[in-house]
Every structure is written in C-alpha cells, then in structure tokens.
Amino acid sequence: MPTDLIRVAVADAHEAVRADTLAMIERDRRLVVVGEAATGQEAIELVAAVQPDVLVLDPRLPDRPGMEVARRIAADTPGTRILALSSYDDEDYVVAALDAGIAGYLPKTASADDILGAIHAVVRGDVVLQPAIASALMKRAVSARGSRSEAGRLTGREVEILELVARGLRNRQIAEELHLSSRTVEAHLTHAFTKLKVATRTQALLQAAARGLLVIPMVL
Length: 220
Prior knowledge:
Distance between the termini: 31 Å
Largest sheet: 7 strands, parallel
Strand order of the largest sheet: 2-1-3-4-5-6-7
Strand content: 5-15%
Mean pLDDT: 84
Radius of gyration: 17 Å
Shape: globular
CATH superfamily of the largest domain: Response regulator
Number of domains: 2
Number of helices: 10
Low-confidence stretches: 147-151
CATH class of the largest domain: Alpha Beta
Order of helices and strands: EHEHEHEHEHEHHHHHE
Helix content: 40-55%
Number of strands: 7
C-alpha cells in the first residue's frame, strides 16, 4: 500500500449508508478504506487494531453514545482524526462532539465532494464545520466575551498550548512537542480555562479566537 494514501475507517449502524460511504471514499484515489464497524465497540476495537488516519463516524450507534466512542478513541488513539456525519445540527450537540475529540462535523446530507474534502482537511489539522454551525459558535463566543470581564491575560505559553490544541493535539502530544510534562500542560490549560471562564477545550479555543489571540484552522 502506498504510504502517502490516507487510511480511512467508517463506523455507521446502517449497512446501506455505510456501504454508500465506503463506495464514495473508494472513488478518491488518495484515500484507502481500512475497515468498517456497525457498533461503538466495533469502532473502538477497529481503530485500536488498524489505527486509521480518519474515522468517519455516525454518532448514533446502537450500543454506545457516539460521544463516548469519540472520547475513548481520542484518548487511546490520538493519531486518528474523527469526522462525524450526523443528522443532528443542534449547537450544544456539536459543541459536545468537538469537546469529545471530534475534528469535523458535517450533516449526512453533505455532498460527496464536501465529505471527501473534509476527510483531507481533518488530516491537515483543520476543524471542519458546516457554515451555519461555525457562524453560530463564533457568535456565541463573541457574545460570551462581551458579557464577561477580561479577568486575566493569557501568558505566551498558554496561547502556545491553545494553538496546539487548535491543531488537534492531545495533552500528551503537546507535552512532547514542547518538551514539557503532561502535568505541566494540564496546569497551563487549567489556568487558561480559569482566565477565559470556560470549562472545555472547544470553549477555550472559541473564546481565545474571539479575543484575537489565535486563529482556529476551520474549513467551512
């Protein structure tokens, strides 16, 4: 197998939908299918076994909540980027998905070109969201910024760590990149969360972007 191909796995409970997604992926000569799963547990085991570059995930799986599956994969196999294809477009649900470690979130009605483009984008480290959701999340962050006092400025190190978070790196990877301990990275993130008055990584990124401290790589 050529080493420059992007290795993709698909997890969807519906066999016909899964087959259509697999056929679509196989039409892109830069992608190769390395496995498929019909349940959350199968998805977790598949990713652990083959470690694909991208998992295309339907969050509605019969045995486990999609967010739980995403968190498990993000923790155990951080090199695998997760692209969710879902029929839900509620803002809170999308935020929860991003907090769980999902790198991209598109509706199931997205075109084949958009889905294939999103697979390539998440591998590059971009955040992929449909335009309406991306706009709503940024407006939410700006609104929250306006309603809160600037309690404290982030240090250069805190911004640097958030920039790596925006690239999709987990704490362990950030620690290796910056030659720090994981505990030190966690401490910096905790301080940043406190200053930004947020509770999650996604909220921190949106708030930092709203303050002009960083740019989130985002494909609309």
